[in-house]
Design a protein that fits this description.
Layout: E1 4-5, E2 11-12, H1 17-42, H2 44-51, H3 57-73, H4 75-89, H5 91-111, H6 115-118, H7 121-151, H8 157-162, H9 168-175
Antiparallel strand pairs: 1-2
Length: 187
């Protein structure tokens, strides 16, 4: 990478290995976290059929999407909880904890028996796991921004925007199979 001229006119050297490592890890964490969300959204029809099978198709799809929404509703609380925890014990530690919570929650959703096996407990556990995923995503998102911001603090802001860890959500959509629209058919 070429040297970058800062606002004060001085040259900033090439990115250090530590800066690259922090940006890569944060971006990878964001890809992982958003992948889980996109995967659930992509499979909502199947999740509805598995966990809300006693209802008509439209109702179970709505319930599956409401469970999906539950994860988004608790994101601000995840930011509050893990933001404070990051202040107390460090961002790197909380970043790892959020990834662990997201991974375990996603795994448990994958092995969770359906409503046909355990009845009403299945959708209740599903929603609880979605809430945990939302908390983890809320905590990870702000934490990775802060980690990257601190790692690149001496850099000009334009450089930070070129290597934005938020781009992880853009990379997660194709990985989850959620390509924008597929082939376009005229007429």
């Amino acid at each position: 990478m070429a040297n970058v001229v800062t606002a004060g006119g001085t040259k900033a050297g090439p990115m250090t290995g530590e800066e690259k490592k922090v940006i890569f890890a944060s971006s990878l964490g964001t890809v992982f976290e958003w992948y889980d969300f996109y995967l659930y959204g992509s499979l909502a029809v199947y999740i509805g059929a598995t966990f809300f099978s006693q209802y008509p198709e439209t109702t179970r799809n709505i319930f599956a999407l409401l469970a999906f929404a539950a994860g988004f509703l608790v994101r601000p609380f995840g930011a509050l909880v893990f933001g404070r925890l990051g202040d107390l014990v460090g961002r790197k530690y909380t970043f790892l904890v959020t990834i662990l919570i997201m991974g375990l929650s996603t795994f448990l959703v994958g092995v969770l028996p359906g409503a046909a096996s355990i009845g009403i407990a299945a959708p209740i556990i599903l929603i609880a796991l979605r809430l945990l995923q939302g908390l983890a995503l809320g905590g990870e998102y702000g934490g990775c921004r802060d980690l990257c911001g601190r790692a690149c603090a001496a850099r000009p802001p334009r450089l930070f925007h070129l290597v934005d860890p938020d781009d992880g959500d853009a990379w997660s959509l194709p990985l989850a199979g959620g390509y924008p629209s597929g082939p376009v058919h005229a007429g």
